[in-house]
Amino acid sequence: MTSQPEVEIGYFPPPRDIGGCPFDPPPEVMRRQREEPVSRMRIWDGQEAWVITRYSDGRAVLSDDKRFSADPVHSGFPEKNVAYKTTLGKDRTIRAIDNPEHDRQKRMMIQDFTVKRVAQIRSKVEDLVDRLLEELLAGEQPADLVSRLAVTIPTMVICELLGVPYGDREFFGRRAKALLAAPTAERAAAAEADLLDYFERLIDLKTDSPANDLISRMVHQQVRPGHFARADLVRLSRLLLVAGHDTTAGMISLSVLLLLTRPEALAEVRDSDDPAFIANAVDEMFRYLGTTHAGRRRVAIAEVAIGDKVIRPNEGVIVLNNVMDRDETVFENPNELDFHRPNTRANVAFGYGIHQCPGQLLARMELQVVHAKLWKRVPTLALAVPMSDLTFVEDGSNFEVETLPVTW
Ligand code: HEM
């Protein structure tokens, strides 16, 4: 690690232009995409990492899992924050291991993320969204759409997927948040201990009384025959809970806010009964909003040339998938929101390569159901406060808005 002063290389993440367009990536990383697409920045723990901003360079890194590792055991790995370093970063789950073990574990769980399984869950999400919108309309104004809609949907989906009792949602919701963003290692560790203990007990329950859920299937198909350790299932369950929760809740709120600020785009979604159009609009919102803005974290385990730079072993790499999705060599007028964009599915909001998100069909489905229903059922929905009163979470793993007060 070199010891240049911080001003010279810049701190990651740099600030967004919240007063301008809060949905755009920080101006500094957009400048780097134009002028120095592979460059170094300093992260929270003082370490330096390479920041990759162009689409082709980013895909080159993410598809090269022989020379770039996702495993934080390698020195130089650029963790996102102290909470990750203390908890998820120490796990041996698919998120943080390399091949061949990564693919072996991912194959075990893939049947729970198929088109067929997502279709089964879809009808439950549709019923839930109908009910939540009725409750919203019957309740007081203004109401916070984050707690009244955005958080509830992924919570129910995760419960359904894993077979977690919905009644326990407050318990795990609070702890899942602490795992991603607790300000101290102690608080992250306490939340982790609670969750691990919770899943231990749930696995006992599923061992005795299996149901149609991922944990039951993993217990009976993988753990009992000896293909997968019970302790690993505890950690995988915890990963899925965390990975599927905040990401999707944050994306629901932010996409609703986006449309509230873009009346023409909102009208297109409200007036459409075409599921293919809604699906494309949702994909375009994933591309445009790039909520997983902390980047994909890797560390080089061999010397690799990316662009005009040479990355050496044990140097950390942050692949900015949100900035890659604003690359004009791939997306025409990338800074415009265009629901008719023909290639918006080429976005990398769900990552790329072996670690690409297994939950993407689920997440897309949840967003599609929300946008197909919300604007028709509540056509007068409006922000209850000026944009400048909203608080955005800029330095977390996901870019999100804290609360979303609305009227109708
Ligand atoms: C808005 C919704 C979501 C977004 C934007 C999102 C984004 C991502 C991204 C970018 C990655 C790649 C990480 C990397 O390359 O280092 C990822 C991985 C992952 N996601 Fe998601 N995700 C979402 C929802 C979900 C859901 C609903 C689940 C599960 C229920 C899920 C489970 C996972 C898991 C387990 C991984 C690790 C996969 C691996 O390393 O092989 N995600 N996600």
TrEMBL record:
Membrane-crossing segments per the record: none
Keyword Oxidoreductase on entry: yes
Stretches for region Disordered: 1-22
SUPFAM superfamilies, alphabetized: Cytochrome P450
PROSITE patterns cross-referenced by the UniProt entry: CYTOCHROME_P450
Family of this protein: Belongs to the cytochrome P450 family.
Name under which the protein is recorded: Cytochrome P450
Classification lineage: Bacteria, Bacillati, Actinomycetota, Actinomycetes, Pseudonocardiales
